[in-house]
Amino acid sequence: MSEGMLTLARQSLLEPAGLGESDLTRLMGQLMSGRVDYGDLYFQYSRHESWSLEEGKVKSGSHSIEQGVGVRAVAGEKTGFAYSDEILLPALLEAAGAARAIVQQGAQARVPAAFRDAQGRASAAGGRMPGATGEAGRQLYRPDDPLASLPDDAKVKLLERVEKEARAQDPRVKQVMASLASEHEVVLVVRSDGVIAGDVRPLVRLNVTVIVEQNGRRESGSHGGGGRLAYDYFNQEDRALSYAREAVRQALVNLEAVETPAGTMTVVLGPGWPGILLHEAIGHGLEGDFNRKGTSAFAGRVGERVASEQCTVVDDGTIPGRRGSLNVDDEGTTTQKTVLIENGILKGYMQDTLNARLMGVAPTGNGRRESYAHLPMPRMTNTYMLPGKFDPKEIIASVDKGLYAVNFGGGQVDITSGKFVFSASEAYLIENGKITRPVKGATLIGNGPDVLTRVSMVGSDLQLDPGVGTCGKEGQSVPVGVGQPTLRIDGLTVGGTQS
Amino acid sequence: MNRNSRIPTHESRVTADDSRLRDAVVQVLAEAKKSGATAAEAGVNISQGLSVTVRLGEVETVEHTRDKGMGVTVYFGQRTGSASTTDFSEQALRETVRAACTIAKYTAEDDCAGLADPERLAKAIPDLDLHHPWNPGMEQAIELARAAESAARGLDTRIANSEGGSLSMHEGLEVYGNTHGFLGAVAATRHSLSVSVIAQDDSGMQRDHWYTVARDAGLLESPQTVGLQAARRSLRRLRSRKLSTRECPILYEAPIATSLLSHFVSAVRGSSLYRQASFLLDSLGKPIFADFVRIHEQPHLKGAQGSAAFDSEGVATQPRDLIRDGILQGYVLDSYSARKLKMQTTGNAGGVHNLTIDPGQDDLAALMKRMHTGLLVTELIGFGVNTITGDYSRGAAGFWVENGEIQYPVEEITIAGNLKDMFRRIAAVGSDVDTRGNIRSGSILIESMTVAGS
């Protein structure tokens, strides 16, 4: 991790509160007294803003600030957790006392010697300590505050230009709604094993939704993008305006859409955002907590074939500027590119520290939490499939009768039964190797552990999504990315109305 | 849990903060006025809770929660800005007001912006019996969660694994005020007990869950009841099959039938209507549901999950019909969307209050008899609902029913239709009302939809 990030995090989180090394030591002492295996403190400050436009006007804007510290004590499989939204020593000592209370009894006393030895050197070493994870100089994004990256009047103008561009596309555009949002987050993780890590994370996002009308029929289209970037990203390469045009294009396609067939058929998924398939069908099922507990349909299947030979799937938190990327995860572990499936064989799971320790494997930098007020757990970062050898045109031409789905709304999975869904918002019929008519959005349903075994062609056109994904798990939301090349799946159930 | 396990009420830390929170709201409103705002509104909330999870008989997590927040909206004539913070220091409150005022410099004039009309604000605030602090202590909380999980695990050897039993206690206080002089406070509690277990046999694993929730812990179902229900629901899903693609009647079990009513609310919400983003535009006075259907709001039900004397703008709530004899009687409006539509607010800023579809005579078994042959749906996944067109397509799991009897469990299928048709083709509403949420419904039988499967 970058020392610069750590220094910034200390400056933002500890100095205003007047907290020094001796206070951290005292807090950790409070947390680790008793029979605690592991403990950590998660300091967080975040600032968020959003601006929204409808009916041609930026009518509302909002700004919020959140800060606090989450305090966790772990003994065996037990976790005690408390937090404080005041970064003040007495409140933190109280939280530490509450967090450790549960794990004081019945567990082995194993306060790691590493922390005691290392704590004095923590400040001197500037974060690079014995046992510390981290890669010097890692900076996947600039630690600047994105809220300040554009004057407020320019934010308003940007949204107004997006609106005009959408309306200029077609007279059938009746409503344009656009929103611009950003977040500046500073985190500092202090762990009982001596690791101390900081990260400063920007996040921006622009979304456009349009409603079009023709002969009394109304349809909508949406597009957007963003990442761990500054607002000027939207002004580069015509991005903001291209989102507007894309939203209108989708909505106009849907005006012509006919009833979708119902039943099991060959489905070709377009590149990029349809990678939500991977997120739902296999991603959640490969998170360490579900596999440690044996509640996932993928539990105990490492080394087995779970996909066709053409499929290699990774979770990669290290792509510069991506929405799902992190320099370090929310437990201070450096993120990495983890191979989940290689040539069809299940290679491993995504781990946080707790589940990695209990399963006897290394953490993979997937320990994430929504905020200081939530417990970390294994979560995805950017999950995608590597490209294959087929030209996407060849893939479509290979299908006699099927569905070509290129845009999706949300998805969901039952990790125990393995059944997952994802809902198409733009799809077409394929007839005799040609894309013919657009059909209405429909939900696609499949079985995670076997859907990828039916992938018969993988395209050469890997794309990542434009940066709009948010993943929910046990009530916690985190930004994520997905991606894939064009894929042909031989047999997926399509929830149309035409039986 | 049953009443015998109830522990005497402890002193409430949250309500002790009542006057402090009122002061904070008053301070924020004064600060907004001082900054030149012509009007302002502010809400402050504080909450605390404890949640414990026991898995396979052992404590897994103990989480202490303690949250607070303040949100303010300022108006400079017809321009508006909002800001919020979790820091209640005087300086942070002042800075938050300033942030809202800064935003209002850049937002556009909007004729419809503004506080609720003064004459609509709640004058009296009745006690709706929402506040029952409960602090059983960590040890007893753990015992209750453990008892619920062990009831589930003890039912059948096929209950092979567990996601745990959880008990949570929550107490919150919210104060809302605006520069029309309204200042109202609501203290409320919410306690719940849940169990999620996994049944397994040679066909694979199935998970299901059950939960009980109440304002007053004495009204929770017993740990035994919750655990057994979770176990039975998981077991009955073992050996699920796919169905072939077909048209057939669909019976939504009560806990998920409520989702149909939430789609209805989305379509008659003011923000969907003025944006022309609803399949129910211009539907007032028109038949939307089957002729026998009545759907109404009961905001003043004692102790219910959705009860409120005033909405999030301070507007007095009142009982009313949304659907009578299948015909749409009113929309779901806040002040802003009401002005956009040249109507009056319906007291629904922040949502509906105990929206209820009148139950019929038949319990679930009688509804299955009535359906004769069709699909009983007990779980829905995914988000395949389009409020603009009414198009509906969601993943489903449940049971195939013939001659009014369950034949076998089914999964990996979708059910699809259009909400406009589905609402009109409701054939019956059950007497088995689920009262755990803000929307109350019995099981709902729909004449026919498309099932997609193998």
Automatic annotation (TrEMBL), chain A:
It holds the Pfam family PmbA_TldD_2nd. Residues 40-102 form the Metalloprotease TldD/E N-terminal domain. Residues 146-255 form the Metalloprotease TldD/E central domain. The keyword Hydrolase applies. GO terms for biological process: proteolysis. Keywords: Hydrolase, Metalloprotease, Protease. Residues 263-496 form the Metalloprotease TldD/E C-terminal domain. GO terms for molecular function: metallopeptidase activity. GO terms for cellular component: cytosol. InterPro entries: Metalloprtase-TldD/E_C (IPR045569), Metalloprtase-TldD/E_cen_dom (IPR045570), Metalloprtase-TldD/E_N (IPR002510), Peptidase_U62_metallo (IPR051463), TldD (IPR025502), TldD/PmbA_N (IPR035068), TldD/PmbA_sf (IPR036059). Belongs to the peptidase U62 family. This is Metalloprotease TldD. It comes from Candidatus Muproteobacteria bacterium RIFCSPLOWO2_01_FULL_60_18.
